[in-house]
Specification:
Blueprint (H helix, E strand, L loop, with lengths): L2 E2 H4 L13 H9 L20 E2 L8 H5 L7 E2 L3 H10 L3 E6 L4 H11 L2 H10 L1 E6 L4 H15 L6 E5 L5 E5 L4 H17 L1 H16 L13 H12 L16 H13 L3 H15 L14 E2 L7 E2 L2 E2 H18 L2 H18 L9 E2 L2 E2 L2 E2 L7 H7 L2 H10 E2 L5 E2 L2 E2 L2 E2 L10 H15 L7 E2 L2 E2 H17 L3 H17 L1 E2 L2 E7 L2 E5 L2 H18 L2 H18 L31 H16 L2 H20 L5 H12 L5 E4 L4 E9 L2 E8 L4 E3 L12 E4 L5 E7 L4 E4 L6 E6 L1 E10 L9 E5 L1 E2 L8 E5 L2
Parallel strand pairs: 1-2, 3-5, 4-5
Antiparallel strand pairs: 4-6, 6-7, 8-9, 10-11, 11-18, 12-13, 14-17, 15-16, 19-21, 20-21, 21-22, 23-24, 24-25, 25-31, 26-30, 26-33, 27-32, 28-31, 29-30, 32-34
């Protein structure tokens, strides 16, 4: 018989507030089956957990990790808040996620400790939150921590009134510090409760009762200001931005890549290549298995925090895909493909979605799964292979990690691309040996928003690398996300073991809509555009703030303030920044100017923040750049979506420009019969670095239009223009071509336009 924590620790439940009985908890534990392994040091002689709490009723991997702590945890629920009200107790809330190293440390030191548990159970109602399922709750109390301490992180711990308002917040605390803090809070609650209520109300007013911000205008210099602040934060020696701990800052890199493609300079290129080369060298990047760890604890990207997050793989694969387009460096292609292959091989659920993360820890230690002894490497490789390995990889003391080694290239810039085949053969042997180790925990949540970030990565990889397996993976994922996460006309956020949980929040709608717009771009199937429009309509109904503009983080006002708005880029891109780009993109594809009007309202709501700190708003500035100067992706649109332009580089000297026209529209051929009509033509702009050798236009069709008795020479439906070019420079730069065309119907010809192509 299991012991229910509250009774073991001489604390009685209030039967009024206890919606779940002891029998409910015991049955939930028993129903887990014989293979279930409770995560606790408190195990009886039969191998059963001595304690069980309300988290046993949950499916979140993170909450289940704490289901057998002696702390009587509740989920974020009416049950917990009603209990706090009925018993007049403060709430202790702790927020983290399943693969969080310091969450594990605090669990072992404090939450699985009976002394700490007894104090919490006696004086508090305890709530655990998985931040990946409820980022709106996390954001609410993270704001409090940042207000009170100037910083945030996980585990995030806070003390609340029974109405959900916080009066204290912080991050990781060692056991003695935590007990001291909790003791002080308990004494204040007992003797000076009014002070805590006043403190909570003051914090609430500061964070949520600000006057309506005035609409702002983006500075004309914002792009240069952003580039200046990025350059100022750039680590010229090791790449990346700022000092350790170093995060990849994918949003900054994507903005830089876009701006370098538009306005090439040696300075921007140096920032990009120095950063990407060093990140790929090993440590942050898993040279053996592919994929990136979350961040580096040092400046040189060597010693990572070993957890792997799905969102990092989604965005860094896209960064390396676009960097390959920009530079044609084989290394970047290799890294992008290995990262996506890692996901397809190790992180995909059989139903179709991708798991959210893998842990930093295995066998009770951080990094154990990923590091090597020299002796082990020698035992796996032949002498010849080990000799080659030492040519390319560093096994010096520099790569030492707690007595073992992190595999890292000596100098990735010196490797000849022809050597990658041999390198891959060697690392493959190490991979198969590593596969026999005890792996880190995989957080098997399938998160809608993070999976949505992968759609563009797979589709662009398929297009740029001419590999259908990535395109197919992207379409399959889109089908899965749209079909699986909608139930009874409701969009959900989380799938665990194919069971849907948690209504979708704004993040899910924004990322999914943006991802599905990429699916429409690459398939031209209108069903995807219709789905995007439907999602955006619901997004507007649920999250749009018609008074202050912008989208709220969620529409759940119970115990938290859901009027929070995410504007700056963090570990994942700004949700309002993504919505801004999405709405502008929809206007380009539908000619519905209400989307642009709404996008401008979003931009004006955050303009003052962006102007004052452009470094943290790369997603917004990327969108503003495209709006001001036109999109520069593989796929572009002209004439409000009537013409789609898909530029595809087949090899070093062969580019195909595919034009798809909507029904009842055409463009003049390359040789119009009338002198007043603008020919479809392609011109080489960068004559310094490129020669245009040959252009093959398709065969035209002669038609009569309603406004003329003469036949005209036109292109209709879908046409391909084949181009042969030659690079005249020793240093690669993207070709720059100008496409001129004029769209007409049988009644009218629109003004001619020019589109800059950068294959």
């Amino acid at each position: 018989m299991i012991k229910i924590v509250s009774f073991v620790l001489t604390f009685n439940f209030s039967l009024i507030s206890m919606a779940h009985t002891i029998n409910d908890l015991e049955k939930a534990y028993t129903d887990k089956g014989a293979d279930y392994k409770p995560r606790t040091e408190h195990i009886d002689s039969d191998g059963r957990a001595e304690f069980v709490n309300h988290l046993i009723l949950e499916s979140s991997p993170y909450l289940l990790q704490h289901a057998h702590n002696p702390v009587n945890w509740y989920a974020f629920s009416d049950e917990a808040f009603e209990k706090a009200k009925a018993e007049n107790k403060p709430i202790f809330i702790s927020i983290g996620y399943a693969t969080c190293h310091w969450c594990h440390v605090m669990e072992e030191e404090s939450f699985d400790d009976t002394e700490v548990a007894q104090f919490i159970n006696k004086h508090f109602v305890a709530i655990k939150v998985d931040r990946e399922i409820r980022p709106d709750i996390d954001a609410t109390y993270m704001n409090v921590s940042q207000l009170l301490t100037g910083s945030g992180g996980w585990p995030l711990n806070a003390a609340l009134l029974p109405n959900g308002r916080a009066f204290f917040a912080g991050t990781y605390f060692p056991k003695p510090t935590l007990l001291d803090i909790l003791s002080q809070i308990q004494k204040l609650w007992q003797n000076e409760q009014d002070q805590l209520i006043q403190q909570a109300d003051k914090i609430y007013r500061i964070l949520y009762s600000a006057e309506k911000p005035e609409a702002g205008i983006i500075n004309g210099s914002v792009i240069n200001d952003a580039l200046g602040s990025i350059s100022a934060n750039f680590d010229e020696l090791e790449g990346g931005f700022g000092q350790a701990p170093k995060f990849p800052h994918e949003s900054i890199l994507l903005f830089l890549l876009n701006e370098q493609k538009r306005n090439p300079t040696d300075d921007k290129l140096n920032i990009i290549t120095t950063t990407l080369d060093n990140m790929a060298s090993g440590g942050l990047y898993d040279v053996v298995g592919g994929g990136f760890h979350r961040y580096s604890t040092d400046n040189s990207w060597l010693v990572p925090h070993f957890e792997k997050m799905l969102y990092n793989q989604a965005h860094l694969s896209l960064v390396y895909i676009r960097a390959y387009q920009l530079t044609q460096k084989p290394l970047y292609k290799l890294i992008a493909k290995q990262t996506l292959d890692y996901l397809l091989r190790e992180m995909r659920h059989h139903s179709g979605g991708f798991f959210s993360a893998t842990d930093a820890d295995s066998e009770g230690e951080e990094g154990t799964f990923f590091v090597w002894s020299i002796g082990e490497i020698k035992s796996i490789l032949s002498k010849e292979e080990f000799d080659d390995f030492e040519l390319w990889f560093d096994l010096s003391q520099f790569t030492n990690f707690e007595g073992s080694h992190i595999i890292r290239y000596k100098n990735i810039k010196n490797i000849n691309p022809n050597e990658y085949t041999r390198i891959n053969s060697i690392t493959s042997k190490l991979y198969h040996a590593r596969d026999k180790r005890i792996p880190p925990l995989t957080d098997n949540k399938i998160l809608l928003s993070w999976n949505s970030l992968l759609l563009t990565s797979f589709l662009e990889a398929g297009d740029v690398f001419n590999e259908k397996k990535y395109s197919k993976a992207g379409i399959a994922l889109a089908d899965y996300l749209y079909s699986h996460f909608i139930k009874n006309n409701e969009l959900y956020r989380v799938s665990i073991d194919n069971q849907l949980e948690a209504r979708a929040i704004f993040e899910d709608y924004a990322y999914l809509s943006n991802g599905l717009l990429s699916v429409f771009d690459y398939t031209l199937e209108n069903v995807w555009l219709d789905r995007v429009i439907s999602l955006v309509n619901t997004m507007n109904e649920r999250f749009w703030d018609d008074s202050n503009y912008g989208f709220n983080i969620s529409d759940d006002n119970k115990y938290i303030n859901s009027s929070l708005k995410e504007s700056y880029d963090g570990a994942i891109p700004s949700t309002n920044g993504i919505a801004y780009k999405l709405l502008l993109g929809l206007n380009e594809r539908t000619n519905n100017k209400t989307y642009t009007e709404q996008a401008q309202k979003i931009l004006s709501a955050f303009a003052s923040e962006i102007n004052s700190n452009p470094y943290n708003y790369s997603t917004f500035i990327f969108g503003f750049n495209n709006y001001s100067k036109g999109e520069l992706g593989n796929i572009q649109y002209a004439y409000q979506g009537r013409i789609r332009v898909h530029t595809k580089k087949l090899d070093e000297e062969h580019v195909v420009v595919k034009l798809t026209l909507k029904p009842k529209w055409h463009i003049n051929s390359s040789s119009p019969l009338q002198g007043n009509l603008i020919a479809t033509s392609i011109e080489n702009i960068d004559t310094k670095n490129w020669s245009l050798l040959e252009i093959e236009y398709p065969k035209a069709r002669l038609v009569k239009l309603g406004f003329s008795d003469e036949e005209v020479s036109v292109y209709e439906n879908q046409i391909d223009i084949s181009i042969k070019i030659k690079n005249n420079s020793t240093k690669f730069t993207n070709p720059s071509l100008n496409l001129s065309l004029q769209a007409c119907s049988d009644k009218v010809c629109l003004p001619p336009t020019n589109i800059n192509l950068r294959p």
